[in-house]
């Protein structure tokens, strides 16, 4: 094995990540057609462990949802979530009064900071056919100095995300969606202000790489000391510097060395997470990520007392109607529609 490519591992539901990232979850569900409440028919729910339905049954899961798939109100503190939706819809609502619907290529970047509650439901808006959904949720740590900042979120709408395209000597194309970072002179949208990714010297990159069959792409080197991991999630085979990476596996890649990527006979897709490590203690308990156990206990105590502002919505599994229009309402009342 080439020493620039190492630590090859199979991928499960939750993917391990390198500092400054905490982990990534790959959700892929082939939801059935929806009903008037934007959930599956009651007969589809028979035999499921409702409220804790993480086992794939008939190609999909309800997660913590009771009537709509997804994640009803739950708290976060001390880190960020980057939710990259490949297919389907997410309905967001939170304890600051913010809300939104996004999907099909959109990205939400949320800084939990000192704490908030939010819900992420997956509305089944199509009542005539199935509702396939695929997304990545990436947890990015915050350094100690930023763990108690005010919560904040930004939308990166699909049409505003930079896409880098290149072709190899055989005219086979590679396309890279830049969620964070830059390639040559092309930059991703600006991350939230308190993010570790907001400082260019941290070299944070979140790229979704798509390669045509048998395409070749040269992954440029980053700086020494930067962590870089590649997650190969679609396709038959991917070669990294003469090392074969099997389907649905990850590999660590030396960031300060150029890596040649060669797709197999099928089109390939991979997620790249890269960044300079924060190098601070990480203590995680459920939805809270801090630097010390005492800080975790303080987070739970404050949450029990304040509910991080409480839940301002009339129900827990908040959805935003059957009409699949994209929008975002921020905590200051600003509204965007797409």
Automatic annotation (TrEMBL):
Annotated Pirin C-terminal domain ranges read 207-309
Instruction: Cite the Pirin N-terminal domain residue spans from the record.
Output: 62-140
- What Pfam families does the entry give? Pirin, Pirin_C
Record InterPro entries: Pirin, Pirin_C_dom, Pirin_N_dom, RmlC-like_jellyroll, RmlC_Cupin_sf
Lineage, top-rank taxon, reads: Bacteria
**Similarity annotation:** Belongs to the pirin family.
- Name of the protein in question: Pirin
Q: Which organism is it from?
A: Prolixibacter bellariivorans
């Amino acid at each position: 094995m080439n020493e620039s490519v190492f630590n090859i591992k199979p991928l499960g539901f939750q993917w391990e990540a390198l500092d400054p990232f905490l982990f990534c979850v790959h959700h892929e569900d082939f939801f059935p057609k929806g009903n008037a409440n934007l959930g599956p028919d009651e007969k589809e729910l028979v035999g499921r462990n409702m409220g804790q339905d993480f086992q794939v049954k008939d190609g999909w899961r309800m997660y913590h949802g009771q009537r709509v798939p997804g994640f009803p109100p739950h708290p976060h503190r001390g880190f960020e979530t980057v939710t990259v939706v490949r297919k389907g819809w997410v309905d967001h609502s939170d304890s600051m009064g913010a809300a939104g619907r996004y999907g099909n290529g959109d990205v939400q970047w949320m800084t939990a900071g000192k704490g908030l509650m939010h819900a992420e439901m997956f509305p089944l808006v199509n009542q005539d056919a199935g509702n396939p959904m695929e997304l990545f949720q990436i947890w990015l740590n915050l350094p100690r100095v930023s763990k108690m900042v005010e919560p904040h979120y930004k939308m990166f709408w699909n049409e505003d995300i930079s896409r880098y395209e290149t072709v190899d000597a055989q005219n086979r194309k590679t396309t890279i969606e830049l969620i964070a970072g830059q390639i040559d002179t092309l930059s991703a949208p600006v991350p939230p202000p308190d993010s570790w990714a907001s400082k260019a010297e941290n070299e944070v990159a979140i790229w979704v790489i798509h390669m045509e069959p048998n395409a070749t792409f040269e992954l440029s080197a980053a700086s020494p000391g930067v962590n870089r991991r590649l997650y190969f999630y679609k396709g038959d085979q991917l070669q990294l510097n003469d090392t074969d990476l099997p389907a649905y596996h990850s590999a660590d890649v030396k960031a300060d060395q150029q890596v040649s990527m060669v797709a197999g006979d099928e089109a390939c897709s991979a997620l790249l997470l890269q960044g300079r490590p924060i190098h601070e203690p990480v203590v995680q308990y459920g939805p809270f990520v801090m630097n010390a156990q005492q800080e975790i206990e303080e987070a739970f105590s404050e949450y029990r007392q304040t509910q991080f502002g409480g839940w301002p919505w009339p129900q827990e599994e908040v959805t935003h109607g059957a009409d699949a229009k994209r929008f975002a309402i921020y905590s200051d009342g600003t509204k965007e529609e797409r």
